[in-house]
Structure prediction request, 266 residues.
Amino acid sequence: MNLVDIITAKPVLIGIHLGFAILAIDAFLWLLGEMRRTPWQLRHLRLTAFIGVLAYAISWLAGGYYYVKFYGTLVKPIIKASEAPWVHNIVMETKEHIFLFIIPLAVTAALIAWLKEEDWRALNIRRPSLILVGFVSGLGLLIGLMGFIISASARWGGGA
Amino acid sequence: MNKPKLIYASALSATLTAVFVTVITIVAELNPALKDWLKNLSGHHWTSKSWLSIVFYILVLGVIYALARNVDARKVGVSLKLAIWSAVLGTIALLLFYTAHNFGWL
Prediction:
């Protein structure tokens, strides 16, 4: 078994998808705290913003690969045959598409972290900046909750 | 590189990307020909939407950055609010659409 086989194994993919999503959510929450500090610590701001965007991108790639390669053949049929087919029809369908909102929003939030503090204050965008950074974390949490519902439904539908 | 203008362009492009993803997703569910086209493009409709959304975001960001003039503080603030609201409304629209689709209302 080589490295690619290990990384693309089902439980490893789920672990990468979930683990990096948690890292991204935490990074943006940390960025929110850093933005509220005075004075700004530019190195902290930029590092947390960079980690957040990168972690969301990795989570997206791993989750996307799992979804395309395994979900449709292994998980979806169990949920569709269960007592809660709506979990796929509503929750999964919504989750897979709202994930596509995240990267552009995360990049936009990260770009704010590349401003100098005096420029940020001169632009008078403190409130929308903080809301955006918080929203990028919140949307990740919502998607995580949806993932939990899907996962629980698959186990329940499978009788486990 | 004009950083406020880049933030403005990115926020507006993120807004239009959310609209693009929401519209193409709903229209493709109601129009099998479009969904088949998306499937044939990359082998899976979601993969195609993923690539299209990223290409769309980068292209629109570049166009807005190149064309935007007189980007002031007010415009940057409005663009950030639009980015947030487009994602909120896109999420609600997709959730309502798939709920209606599940129960056969559409």
